[in-house]
Each structure stands twice: as C-alpha cells, then as structure tokens.
Amino acid sequence: MKKITFTFALIAAAMLVSGCNNAQKNTETTEEQTDSTETVAVKESAPSGSIVYFNLDRVLEEYDMANDLRSEVEAKVNAIQKDVDRRQKNLENAAKDFENKYNKGLMTSATIASQQKKLQQQQLNFQQFAQEKQQEIMEEQQVMMNKLADAIKTYVENYNEEKQYALILSNQASVPVITGDPTLDITDEIIAGLNAEYVEAKKSNAE
Whole-model pTM? Predict the structure, then answer.
C-alpha cells in the first residue's frame, strides 16, 4: 500500500548584510548607496510599443498571494496525509492481529475465512480512499495554480493598459529569455504591483 505524498519546494530568502569598521567607511557606504538609489530612481520604464518580459519563477516566489496559497494547500495536504497514514496503520494492525491469531491456532476455519474476506474488503476500501485523496490533492494544487494564473494574467492586462507595450513575455527556468536588455525586464514592477494589489484586496476583505 503506497502512501500519498505531496511536497512543496521551499522558497529560499536571501539577506544582504553589510558592516563598516569606522565612521569614514560608513560615510563612503552611505554616499555609494545614495548614488545607487539615485540611479535606480532615474531608471525609466521601457517606452510604449516595446517588447518586454518578466521572470515568472521570481513572481511565483515573491508574490505574497502565491506564498499564502501554498501555505493553505500545504496545511490541507498535511491533514489528508495524516488521515491516510492513520487508516493505513489501522489496516496494518488488523492484518498483524489476524496473522498472530492464525499462527497460534486461535481461530476456526470459518473464522479464518471470514476474517480474510473482511481484511481484503478493508484493503480495497483503503485503496479507493487513498486514490480519492490523491485526486483531492491534485485538485487542490490545480485550483491554486489556476488562481495564481488568473490573478497574474488579470494584473498584467490591466498594467499594460497604461504601459501600452507591444508584447509582454514571461519566462521560466525551463524556457528562459537567453539574453535581453535589462531595461526591458519588468519583473520588479510586476511583483510590486501584484503585492500592492493583494494587500489592498486583503484589507477590503477584512473590513
């Protein structure tokens, strides 16, 4: 009897840690950061009519809605897995009990036949139950991905009503944009916009 398993990839978080040994280095670092900030601030979006792209892997990692949905589905899957494990354990214990009594000659032939038939039915019931739960897990995952795909697609469509890009591409590790002008990468804008929209939606639902 196979156990149902369902795992999620853990999203790693990177932290930038910096330190200075004296006041002069602190001042220099601050000046460098200011220059960097100014550079980012003056960076302009690609002009209307451009072909731009965003990294879908990053969006799915950094989109708050994606993380919340993954946590919800993972909790449901863990609950399902515990139920399956419990039922499997009960079936294994019943089989061991039958085997123990059989080896000790504690059952009549009629009882043995009856118990064997009962165990076989219990095993069939468990297999059906496990298959149903596996299907339930797959549906939970599919619904999660549908929700994310719909949210991202809807946001990008609304986003482009203002930007008026000729084409917006999405790329993943399996189908990457081999090379491209960094000014055409709108991943940061998409992530920031999606998260801002999600925060507002959560606030509205909480009210």
Answer: 0.70
SS3 9: coil
Neighbours of 143 (CB within 10 A): 12
Residue 172: phi and psi, rounded to 5, are: -130, 175
Q: Provide the H-helix boundaries in the chain.
A: 23-42, 56-62, 64-103, 109-163, 187-206
- Identify the pLDDT of residue 185: 92
Return the higher-pLDDT residue of 87 and 37: 87
Give Cβ neighbours of residue 191 (< 8 Å, ≥ 6 apart).
58, 59, 62, 63
CB 52 within 8 A of CB 184: yes
Which of the 8 DSSP states describes residue 183?
Answer: G
CA atoms of 122 and 56, how far apart (whole Å):
45
Give me the half-sphere count of Cα atoms (radius 13 Å) on the Cβ side of residue 131.
Answer: 6
